[in-house]
Amino acid sequence: MLVEALVVSALLFVIGTFGVLVRRNAIIMFLCIELQLNAANLSFVALSRHLGIDGQIFVFFVMTVAAAEAAVGLAIIISIFRHYQTVNVDNFNLLKW
Amino acid sequence: MAELLFYVFAAVAVGGALGVVFQKNPVGSLLFMVISLGSVAALFVLLEAHFLAAIQVIVYAGAIMVLFLFVIMLLNLGHDYQADLRTGFWSVLAFVAVGTVAGLLARQFRGAAESPIYQHFPGPEALDALIAEQGVVGVIARPLFTDYVVAFELTGLLLLVALVGAVVIAKKRV
């Protein structure tokens, strides 16, 4: 089941990458980043079955960091929305050359 | 039976992920994400990581997704039905990037199960014996509070910093 789980993890990661690159809604882009983190977690768990329990502990830490990141990131999105009245990333062009 | 369940949940997880990317409505996107996270939790169970499956459902599919839903409702984005997929140069770039990543990952899988790296490690039987001896929570708790205790305490500090940071950033006037 190891190779199958790694393939599923790779598919989820690739779909998440695609989502980050093609969507313009900041919240959906953020959601796709969570999808990538989750794909990495799946491959950690699949490998920890063969290589020892440490992989599962890493997944525990990744989940904590993901929760902290979601809280701060969504606060930033709320703050940006107050300023521009939109979450479409094409409108945030202050640093665009 | 386990194999069949594995393929079913894997298909649901990938389908949910595709739904996240291609759903126009943000709330629909979020609900697809919950489906995908739940299926990955089921895959965790099939891979004998029961504690992480519970955490995945409670923290990820529960708390974090509710936070996202709350922000979507707060900003009143539930009525956004126009497509916001990029076209032209960006979509070509996305396909090239995704194809490269997929190709690199696919190269790694050729003969992954027979790779010599697994000869030096305990393997699934050793982990199953450890779980039978210490229980599904004990097997994680023991290293977490001995070998990884510094990282564990730092995680608490990180959560405190994130809490204060989120309050300060989302406040109206600093």
Account of the 3D structure:
The complex is a heterodimer of chains A (97) and B (174). Chain A has 97 residues and is mainly α. The model of chain A has no long low-confidence stretch (mean pLDDT 89). By secondary structure, chain B is an all-alpha fold. Chain B has two domains: 119 residues, Four Helix Bundle (Hemerythrin (Met), subunit A), CATH 1.20.120; 53 residues. In chain B, α1 packs antiparallel against α2 and α2 runs antiparallel to α3. At the A-B interface, α1, α2 and α3 of A face α1, α2, α3, α4 and α5 of B.
Q: Helix- and strand-based class of chain A?
A: mainly alpha
Gross morphology of chain A is elongated
Q: So what's the overall shape of chain B?
A: globular
By secondary-structure content and strand pairing, the structural class of chain B works out as mainly alpha
Strand % of chain B is under 5%
Distance between the termini of chain B: 57 Å
Tell me what portion of residues of chain A adopts beta-strand conformation.
under 5%
Task: Summarize the amount of helix of chain B as a percent range.
Answer: over 70%
CATH homology group of the largest domain in chain B: NADH-ubiquinone/plastoquinone oxidoreductase chain 6, subunit NuoJ
Order of helices and strands of chain B: HHHHHHH
Overall CATH class of the largest domain in chain B: Mainly Alpha
How big is the Rg of chain A?
A: 16 Å
Determine the mean pLDDT of chain A. 89
CATH domain fold name of the largest domain in chain B: Four Helix Bundle (Hemerythrin (Met), subunit A)
